[in-house]
Design goal:
Four copies of one chain form a homotetramer. Chain A is α/β, with parallel strands linked by helices. Chain A contains 13 helices and eleven strands. Chain A has a seven-stranded parallel sheet, sandwiched between helices. Chain A has a four-stranded mixed sheet with strand order 8-7-9-10. In chain A, helix 6 crosses helix 8. The relative contact order of chain A is 0.15.
Chain lengths: 397, 397, 397, 397
Amino acid sequence: MDKKIGLLIVGVNGAIASTAIAGVEAIKRNLAKPTGLLTETEAVAGVDLVKLSNIKFGGWDIVQEPHFQCLKKHGILEESLITKLEKEPYDIDFFSAPRTGITNHIMNIDSTMHIDDIMIPVKDAVRQIIENINEFKNKYNLTGCVVVNLSSTEPRKENLEFLNTIELFEDAVNKNNPDISSGMIYAYASIKAHAPFINFTPSATVDIPALKQLAEKERVAVAGNDGKTGQTLYKTVIAPMLKWRNLKLLGWYSTNILGNNDGRVLEDPNHKKTKIMSKTKVLDNILGYDDFYHRVEINYYPPRGDAKEAWDTIDFQGWLGTNMSMKINWIGEDSILAAPLVIDIMRLLWAAYERGAYGVVRELAEYFKDPIDCKDHDFSNQILLLQKFIEILKDNN
Amino acid sequence: MDKKIGLLIVGVNGAIASTAIAGVEAIKRNLAKPTGLLTETEAVAGVDLVKLSNIKFGGWDIVQEPHFQCLKKHGILEESLITKLEKEPYDIDFFSAPRTGITNHIMNIDSTMHIDDIMIPVKDAVRQIIENINEFKNKYNLTGCVVVNLSSTEPRKENLEFLNTIELFEDAVNKNNPDISSGMIYAYASIKAHAPFINFTPSATVDIPALKQLAEKERVAVAGNDGKTGQTLYKTVIAPMLKWRNLKLLGWYSTNILGNNDGRVLEDPNHKKTKIMSKTKVLDNILGYDDFYHRVEINYYPPRGDAKEAWDTIDFQGWLGTNMSMKINWIGEDSILAAPLVIDIMRLLWAAYERGAYGVVRELAEYFKDPIDCKDHDFSNQILLLQKFIEILKDNN
Amino acid sequence: MDKKIGLLIVGVNGAIASTAIAGVEAIKRNLAKPTGLLTETEAVAGVDLVKLSNIKFGGWDIVQEPHFQCLKKHGILEESLITKLEKEPYDIDFFSAPRTGITNHIMNIDSTMHIDDIMIPVKDAVRQIIENINEFKNKYNLTGCVVVNLSSTEPRKENLEFLNTIELFEDAVNKNNPDISSGMIYAYASIKAHAPFINFTPSATVDIPALKQLAEKERVAVAGNDGKTGQTLYKTVIAPMLKWRNLKLLGWYSTNILGNNDGRVLEDPNHKKTKIMSKTKVLDNILGYDDFYHRVEINYYPPRGDAKEAWDTIDFQGWLGTNMSMKINWIGEDSILAAPLVIDIMRLLWAAYERGAYGVVRELAEYFKDPIDCKDHDFSNQILLLQKFIEILKDNN
Amino acid sequence: MDKKIGLLIVGVNGAIASTAIAGVEAIKRNLAKPTGLLTETEAVAGVDLVKLSNIKFGGWDIVQEPHFQCLKKHGILEESLITKLEKEPYDIDFFSAPRTGITNHIMNIDSTMHIDDIMIPVKDAVRQIIENINEFKNKYNLTGCVVVNLSSTEPRKENLEFLNTIELFEDAVNKNNPDISSGMIYAYASIKAHAPFINFTPSATVDIPALKQLAEKERVAVAGNDGKTGQTLYKTVIAPMLKWRNLKLLGWYSTNILGNNDGRVLEDPNHKKTKIMSKTKVLDNILGYDDFYHRVEINYYPPRGDAKEAWDTIDFQGWLGTNMSMKINWIGEDSILAAPLVIDIMRLLWAAYERGAYGVVRELAEYFKDPIDCKDHDFSNQILLLQKFIEILKDNN
């Protein structure tokens, strides 16, 4: 009998999560083709992956709202598709997100959120998450479970010493240290519950030394950071092109406008900083020099809704010091681009995990803006890495 | 003593040729950095290549005009640089282009060209070119000589039987067959003179079966077709990105505007057809499907001068059939982008030739819009091929 | 009791016509706001215009297809709106388009069109159209009727002598002259039936001398040519801006891609020529000089559907001969932009007609790419003309 | 004999000032055409304006640097033009800018500026400026003198009571109130010296009630605020186009990148705020509604130099609530666009002044982003106002 794997999502009522779940359901019912999913193409032919129909969805969110209501609110899927899906409804296991007081700043942004104010200590939050994972696995008789972080970007604090070792981190958990972020709690609990963890956001989770060490110690596979969905995706193909023609980059100005909740959170300078840091390292790493001006702007622009528009102007110098430029205007849909990546990464990460991989799975670098412990941001090299990885998976079916 | 290699250019007074030659001279005199030249970067470190200062330039053109006058007319280099170069002038060996009657249609486009009307049979043209090559080698005591075709795009005729074998082709040469194009004559003569030949244009030369066979028989290295300088360059990086995300291409509309002589020649529908054919195959080959609408337009637009501007709109479909798009505006300088490629290819092709390579050198595929006998247009794969090639060159110094 | 006016549309099953009719019905039922209609804003406050609910729709087409089927086929309205409209259906009077053999070239483009091949002489076609108009007026007890030409662009023949006078034209009608186009037949019949005529296309109709004379003689108001919906609209605001800053235009390259039936017809070089001629005069007229390069390209690009995308690059020179440029990317919906204009022009033309205007109503110049007998294409001057016109209408209620 | 008029520039060594002066000198010597100058076209034919050759230049700056050195540093003019101008040098009267301590924040931005630290009271600064103006007039026997503010944007403080009346303002001058900005000092002194004043910046000068009253009392003509050179210029033509088609604006996102000193100053959030406020009011005023999202971003981007690039995405709604958009990419040269405006405004303002105009000359609204006491930002209406103004000037020669 085919294995069944759970996917537990932090932020299960958000735009990406609900779009991913509804999409998989639509594909299962032949209401849509699996466009956007690499794991449904010939590229992975021969790899034994969990079947789309054997993925069981669940997750946490700070506010409970029925899935179909979320889909309508986010306004990403066409109403006619939602209507068709509603005819044959499906269950998503919802767990109330444990509150430790640390996510307050996020909650305040939406006055429509009504949250009871009971806060609990960090170690209780950890215990609750582990229980949720185990309960979910038992309830559906799952072979295993992957946890993915799709919640809003959190601010990063610098120089926190307790992030450096497992011992210091666990001590901080026990002492309810207020610098432990929500993302760290989920990552820690997932590793302890032996659920592979994906950090699809730029927040601090499995990239901190303590949790990388823990993932190795507990032999759990993890991956991150920050799903590469748009502007950074094409940056990682254009920059190598410049490099291999010895065209000298002078400057790259990138602006992003988006009108979804992600955009609203990123209006907050602290959150934006975490995001922009995750986006700017990529060019230096590919080009091998940094004497150019790289600027990334993100602006909240409500008329755009979930459609994330980007504009770039790329200034470079060629033969005899001649200046030239390239401008790109990207009109993408953020959640539409992100949703299939969540499914692709989940399937590939599980496949690696069940074949014995643990710690950071660097072979998934291509899926991330800021891949953990990977200095090579060149798309083509990352794809090569992924191709070899797929070969290895195939050979170890 | 270091080897000296000649570079004989068909169209030596044109924009690309004069920009390439002046650029190399500027680098030699420390008036410019070698930006744009891959063969001056670490990527080729350790490969024994002909030194920039040991390349001797010469070539043919249908009209004779002093080099510095050409530079001023083309308006690509800054006047101040031309002035500096003129202070310490350099020689370029000029050969009058043999006329067989076939290039008439090109000549007519510029009323300022005054050409004596003496036409000669094809076989005499071949003999003259071979003599020019040998004379050039002897005069400067060159180790060898590479010929590159930078002349205007010629119309291609379909279904010419004499192109299929060496015997039929040589018979056509002897019988002065009017379907033998100017490009074929230069390619044929170069191979016979054992000068490696580069076809930087989309015209028919070393891609015809007869001349590929001849290159193998005579053990001469050749490369082509059509230098990849702008729009096709970024097509070969964007298309693989779509492929590896399983984003379905629906349509790609490409328009080009250019105001140089190349643009004027391409106004002629027959010439344009050769060019556009060379540009359109690339997407199907990368994506592995062709049910999308691909349209390439080229328009003569004098205000742009040599600056070739392109605009693309790329329509693709993602998760749940959602349509998205990407638009690119490329503001490049045609000759500035092409000039260093000519030097890069020449150095690499010679290096391969002197190490024993002959026939079509497919490893140089990355440099061409329509690489001969190469189905893989993916930039990253082509770069990988080039990297391996460079390794082999290094190992065989 | 309020007056009722008929609007008879040549091409009533086309995209613009069906979108205009469905839109008016949607506004009447409060399913949509009258966005896009100037005649529903304060700008026309106080002018006695025919009410939206008192416009009765009908028209001709070469193929009969139910209105709601047309709406679905064109794919412009959202399905949910069509569904709502269908619940309370409305009638559109359909007349079979008389065939004289001249529209053959258009018909051939769509193999799904099944047309009986009975062709009739021009004078019979004229008689049929007049009868249709009168029948329509009587059936609904209309005060009057406006005819608007929304059919596909027809090729224009140069130097047809019979277009110069009423007598020669009527003689040609009687002799079944094959150079009489379909558009001319409708325009002639409308004027004879005293129905004001709007030429929303670039085809030859009321701009030919014979029909202008006839409109004056018969005291019928007419307007045209070629509804100004997108690229030409912004050209007529950008060009005056350049003029009033004494910024010298060097070149304006305009490309259009569209995937609807209009785009398909314009692939035919003869049709395209008529369209492009209508689009190119505008800049010279505004700027007062013509020593710049103006190029307009129109390309059929199916992925775009009815969404007509345009890209322009505008090159100009400023202080000290410095070159600068402006690039515009317009992502409009052709029929969505055109539909309200049809209603606006119809209401304003009828208002003028019932107040005694006849011949070409130049005050409506703003609505046309190539306004008949109007040399001033400056948008601001045209708007001023329109404002004064609205004042006069108001004073003559 | 023809009148001679002085133009005294606050910021005479800046990019706009030196480009304007050098440009006029180039035109006088037939080294350039007066492209960009409306006052050299037929539009002003028949108006008695000061001749270009009769404008005498001078001004103040916080650092003294020879004019030709400034030209080279700014890098706007071609070197070859500077060389030609230098052959026949011209004088510019330089006055040291009086320092009151208020401009400190600006000075700090450029470590290359070496400024002696002697600060003087505001009333002494006023006295010095008046003396400079009179000295300049006497030295060259000028009929009069216009002062234009081209210095860097200053922060604006809200709710300063002393700005409301002449009395309070003069009292503040005498008491050396630290909230008196540098711009106010120049404006005040100019009016007292009966020199018409142009505020080409968004800083607070002649728009404050006290100085408007003073201009009326002293019968001096003044004009401002903030020269309209690029993005706002096309906003004032695109917005009326939307209005007259009843296309509902949903959002307008504008980003600007510039690499000159102006850009560096605008990196400071306080300075940027003054600038952005001056840019955002314009759309509401034209459209007559404000329920859309308007966002203007300005970013310092060194690779661009003086070339100010802008990108806009304009989202609007048409018939049946259909969303459409327009994107504009403006590649202008800031100083090249501004320089001729300074000359145009100076000539027109003087012409008005000598014919008896005083107070704010609203007829020059078209030249400003935020015209003082003018609610109508529609370019076409502003041009109409200007046309009428020119007619009046002509009639009063």
